[in-house]
Specification:
Elements (H helix, E strand, L loop, with lengths): L2 H18 L16 H28 L3 H15 L3 E5 L2 E4 L3 H8 L1 H18 L8 H25 L4 H27 L6 H37 L1 H6 L8
Antiparallel strand pairs: 1-2
Length: 248
C-alpha cells in the first residue's frame, strides 16, 4: 500500500470516528419498534436472497484479487460516514445520505447489501440509530433497493456513452432518492389508518422531499469527488476490480 493510499484510509477513518461519535438527533432510518412484528419479519425474509448473493459476490471478488479488499473496506466506511449525517424529517425516521451508490458502482449491488447490513447493525447496536427489529426494512431500502437503482443507472448511462462523472452523479443521486421512496412505501403500508396507502405514501414523500432532494444532490457530488480521488491514487485497485481498463 502506498503512502497516499494510507493517507486516504486515515482520513476516512478519522471522519468515521468523528461522525460516529456525534450525538443522535432523533432516530436514524426507521426506528426501533415503529413497524409491526409481521412487517419486520417480512422485510427481513425479503432481504435474505440478496444477502446470500452479496456474500458470494464478495467472496468471488476477494478470491480473484486481494487488492479489492481495500476498496471494499473504503466503500463500507463511506456508507457509515455519510449515512451518519442526519436531519430529522418525519416522526419515526429522518433524512440522510446513504453512500451506497459508490459501492454499487464499484462492486455491484449484491456486495453492497452486505456492507449496508453491517453498517446498519453497527448503527443500531452502538449508536442507537435505527433498530434491530426494523433492520430488515432498513436493509431493504438502503442496502438493496437503492444500490440496485444506482448500479442500473450507472450501467445504462455508460451504455449510452454518457460522461463517466455524470453517470456517477446520476447513479448516486437517483439511488439515494429511490431509497427514500421505498422507505415512504414501507411506512405507508404500516401506517395508513386515516387514509389509503397511496395517500399515506404521498404524505411521507412530501415530508421527506424538502430535505432529501438537496441531500441527494450533495451525495452525487461527493461520490464524483471520491471517484476522481480513487482514479488519482488507486488506479491499480480500480483496474483490479474492472472499473478502469488497462491503458485508461
Amino acid at each position: 500500500m502506498t503512502h497516499k493510499q494510507k493517507r486516504i484510509i486515515a482520513i476516512i477513518s478519522a471522519f468515521s470516528l468523528y461522525f460516529g461519535l456525534m450525538p443522535a438527533a432523533s432516530a436514524m432510518h426507521i426506528m426501533e419498534g415503529y413497524l409491526p412484528v409481521g412487517f419486520c419479519v417480512a422485510w427481513g425474509v425479503v432481504c435474505l436472497p440478496f444477502l446470500a448473493a452479496g456474500l458470494m459476490s464478495i467472496r468471488k471478488v476477494l478470491n480473484e484479487n486481494r487488492k479489492a479488499l481495500i476498496l471494499l473496506a473504503m466503500s463500507g466506511a463511506f456508507i457509515f460516514v455519510i449515512s451518519s449525517l442526519k436531519i430529522p424529517s418525519v416522526t419515526g425516521s429522518c433524512s440522510h445520505m446513504t453512500g451506497t451508490g459508490l459501492g454499487a458502482i464499484l462492486f455491484g449491488p449484491a456486495a453492497v447489501s452486505v456492507l449496508g447490513l453491517i453498517v446498519l447493525l453497527f448503527q443500531a447496536l452502538l449508536l442507537a440509530h435505527g433498530g434491530l427489529t426494523t433492520i430488515g426494512a432498513n436493509t431493504f431500502s438502503m442496502a438493496v433497493a437503492g444500490p440496485l437503482v444506482s448500479f442500473g443507472i450507472y450501467k445504462l448511462c455508460r451504455k449510452f456513452k454518457a460522461n463517466k462523472y455524470i453517470s456517477v452523479f446520476l447513479a448516486a443521486f437517483l439511488g439515494d432518492l429511490f431509497t427514500y421512496c421505498v422507505t415512504a412505501v414501507q411506512l405507508a403500508v404500516a401506517h395508513h389508518a386515516d387514509t389509503t396507502i397511496m395517500g399515506a405514501m404521498g404524505k411521507f414523500m412530501a415530508v421527506f422531499a424538502p430535505t432529501q432532494v438537496p441531500l441527494a444532490v450533495i451525495e452525487g457530488l461527493i461520490t464524483c469527488m471520491i471517484i476522481m480521488a480513487l482514479e488519482t491514487y488507486a488506479k491499480p485497485e480500480l483496474r483490479a476490480i474492472g472499473f478502469l481498463k488497462e491503458g485508461k
